[in-house]
Fold each of these.
Amino acid sequence: MNESNYQFRGTDDYIISDDLMLTANIAIRMNKPLLVKGEPGTGKTALAESIAKALGRKLIVWSIKSTTKAQDGLYQYDVVRRLYDSELGNEGVDDVSRYIKMGKIGEAFCADEQCVLLIDEIDKADLEFPNDLLWELDRMEFYIPETDETIKAKHSPIVIITSNAEKELPDAFLRRCAFHFIEFPDEKLMRDIILAHYPDIETELMDQVLDAFFYVREYFELKKKPSTSEVLDWIGALKLSGIPTDKLRSDLPLLSFLIKKDEDLETVKQSTGGLRGGLR
Amino acid sequence: MFLGFLLFLRSGGLKVTLHDWMSLIEGLHQGLHGQSFHGFYILCRTLLVKTESDLDKFDEMFHRYFEAVDPVKISQEIRELTAQPDVAAKVFAGYFQKNDMPLGEAMLQIEERLAETRELLSAPVAVNAATAFGNVPGGTGAGPGTGNGAMMQGAGGKSIVHARGDRQFRDWRTDCTIESRQFQMAFRLLRELSRKLETSEEELDIRGTIDHTCRRGGILDIRMQPPRKNRLKVMILIDSGGSMRPYEQLCSLLFQSLHKANTFSDLKIYYFHNCLEQRVYEDPEVDPAKSIKTDWILRNISSEYKVIFVGDADMAIHELMDGSGSSWSTASDDGITWFRRFREKYPHSIWLHPQEREQELAWMPESFVEIEKVFPMFRLSIDGLKDGMYKLMRGN
């Protein structure tokens, strides 16, 4: 395989599957935004951080909320402040550019070197949101009518977009992206991931944790299945608490770190009460 | 290059555009597939598949299309070429020149690469059988791992086998029955659609007002805009008990996500037992004490409500066609008449059925066929729900 195609190879604390590594590199090389989907907690956001770290680029995070508008990412024109200033007769009111503040995309475009732009949880926003960004992400430029100025990216940023699949994204938007669906890691990959975060973890604890974790994940009908980030939290909590680890699977201590929904906690508690030991 | 594959994918219903295709060719040109079959698979997947619900379809089609690629035949052809150096030299002349490489060495390399590919291609046969044992889902937690891992190793890295043989993305197909998270997703569609409803109401557009006031130098200029409220009113009638037992969990999910959606301006939920009768019930226990007259609904609930029936439409035909068969009351009207009345009163109404539709309509229960004549029917799957919602918004 051509070495130069392999810009990104994961970092020490972010273990990556081969497929995702290939995909990420393809997206970077082809200058396409990479759309990452997957279960919550499988490391979608961490991917961007890891790429930024591995390539030594600055990471700009734009977290999307339900109220976020596409415009917010480009620039904001502070009309109200300008109005105040004009009433008070402050200086520089006629200089419109003083009231233009760059958003995250604007920031990434204006940066002096290539950076990584993470558009986090794009599906949180309004349904029209991705469509409003089509031109900007395609052409890597936008126009500010207030100052009659076109902002063009000096270096096209590496764009990573994450989605939890809460809303479907418009086709026109998808067409422009490279796509990857992060699968839930298998046991081997999970081991590597845990080792990356807790290099000094004892084998005993690791085995017990994984055993208990996959048991919880697969045996019970859960609404929100625990994922990578939960298992990492859980290990952290277990280590801190010093609870003996030999009966993790039957006792499931500190379960609330693993399972976040009340209903799910009930489900597991009820079942384990009756089944303890029987399934070993 | 690979134009046939593009057409094959499109004929299979994957929306691959020419633009995607150009990207793929560009990627190949840049060597992003790394000269390996798996790399090619990933490259195609990255650039051509846009949503997880298409992944399974893509895997299947990729497998079907390239299944025919016979490494043995190819290597035979290559061997024939090696036997005839002058022909080979002609065919690969450009390549040799560029890479400044003697013929023999090049052939060796090709053979090596082919051997690799052959291994990958022949692997699924061995592995599919093996996974049948290795992959017994981890009821006890220890499942995935050892057995599989070893098999994958043999196949030269896990993914190619995994991706092509196992069809790991099956769960994400949208044409199967819904699960909790996906359910809510589907209901957002209804919300999306409801935004498009026309309304004459208006509210103050603060942003616009400020903007325009500033433009006029501080003289107040009020701007109005239509509100973004959901004006949608929904009535749901759910078949409860009896043949619907197996779908109880599904219905409960539907119920929950409807409540969670919480975006309708009014939501009414009623239950009926098997077939619509004189009374409908207010809770799933179909307690006659908590029931209201079906007639009352027809008279009092306005026709702007969107009506969704949920049920398997599987009832005894006499229950549907003549009133005497009703299970709880001494009805004078038969079920189908009630259904027709609903249809007349509520032009925006659909029927969702949880079970799979048989290929031939004639194989479905007779009552199903009858009801389909009255209501547009959709399966309670993501795709079905989506189609149903569109239908519901459009009316007839």
Amino acid sequence: MMFSMAQSFNRLLGKLAGSARRTHIQRSEPTSASFRKERASSVGLKQVSVYYGSKCAMKAASIDLEAGTVSSLVGPSGSGKSSLLASINRLNDLQQARTTGEIEIDGKNILDNDISVSALRKQVGMVFQKPNPFPLSIAENIKFPLREHGIKNKNTLNEKLEHQLKQVGLWDEVKDRLNDSALQLSGGQQQRLCIARALALSPKVLLLDEPCSALDPIATARIEDLITKLKSDYTIFMVTHNLAQARRISDKVAVCWVKDNTGYIVESGPTEIMFTQAKEAISQHYINGTLAGS
Amino acid sequence: MPEFSLYKGIPRFSLTKSRLIHGLIAAAVLLALCVFGFVLSDIAIKGWRHIDFSFLTENPLDSGRAGGVLSILVSTLAVVLICLFIAIPLGVATALWLAEFSDSSKTRPIAAWLRRLIHLLSGIPSIVIGLFGFVFFCQILGLGYSLLAGGLSLACMALPLIIGTMEQDFRSLPSSLRQASSALAISHSAFIFHILLPVSAPALITATVLSIGRSLAETAVLLFTSGYVTRMPESVLDPGRVMSVHIFDLSMNVTGGDNKAYASALVLTALIIALNFFTKIVIARFKARL
């Protein structure tokens, strides 16, 4: 019941933001840009739990991420937000995490054993809290992963490099020093380079783990602009501690909380509803910045 | 006391104490500098008079009392190069295994033992390594007194140093880079060759230079393995006398060899100092590029 209400509200929002939608539809035409990617994927999480050994970091999380939208995960530290995020590209596997439930991307459960983790990670890009460019040149940061995935043609690599750097608005700033070390860029530039690097593999889903928390307000604003610009082509899922940011750029918000050392999703819904009339007391308090009564 | 003093307002007792400590630290620094300065100036003053260009271009004559050190330099270079040629690939590969491939439950105990053994190896006195080298390389493997046997024995000394330095450096790579490359589905081998090893290049240079320094200074190991003869070696299977053995022999066994010993010591010291400067420059270049 609640869910269908949320859906119809979503549709309403969609109509209000009609112009944005239209560009989305136009951009989805296969004839547009030369690096046309496939349509963004919808991601469905059903009863997803993440365990590290016996510790349960996230319990039974369910949320639907619609294609072409930004969804935000907010909540206190230790409430399992990042663990949930990293289960979607199975980066959790590195920490020997055990993930149960179902994560469906385009109808395929990516927690199945027969899934190719490498193919999955190409499809689901990730950007981290602290900008982590490789200690290579600016150009190599984009080209090295591409070469690794079989693109060897020099012209293609250079075109791709220019396209990606333009997409994140970095081209004009760095085009004269593409062979300089990426570590010489400012924090905000590094983060945009990392986004470009993730986008170069043509993912359908983009996971952002507090992408602005290490950046100053101006760099943050640029990243937010970028996310808004990108969202029609990707399904974006973002963890953030910045509630104002979640409200500014996301279509959907999920509030996480931690109880008995176990994280869970309190509730989720369209951003404006969550910010004005959240159902649960915990999310109301969290979103208003008041401490929930214990 | 001046008006704006660092010590203003501090009780007299702790003032005296802190001045005393400052004084002691300064004295310690001075003492350390004195030792270094004394050794260096002693070698420089007594050695300088006996060095000319021909000292570097002639072979030693009359047990080293006359002539130069050319064949000694060649032997030294050969032994050090053989040592590096063996120890670097072996050491880097071992460190790589320890840092990158030994974290499964099966391999972890093996890695722990390996680390213990390497630690032990680094503590073995060089004279024991020399005797081992003599028995194993010279006799069992039949290499006899030769530059090859000397280089291999030196490699035994350099290995723990290289493994230790490199493993530590591999492990100090920020985990964020590992995450980034996993998230981009970059293979483990590509990560190692394109990220890990290039980033560790300065550490490899440091480890190499430390090994060279130690090899140049090593006497005991080479006394037993690379031999004593002063003639120019013609292959790695020929024996050859290295610099430190030459200095040892001139000063202990050859009457009237002191001047040449000082001259040789000066050459050796200059080599090591030059090597250190050179490394500093190379590493600074590397870091500037990153």
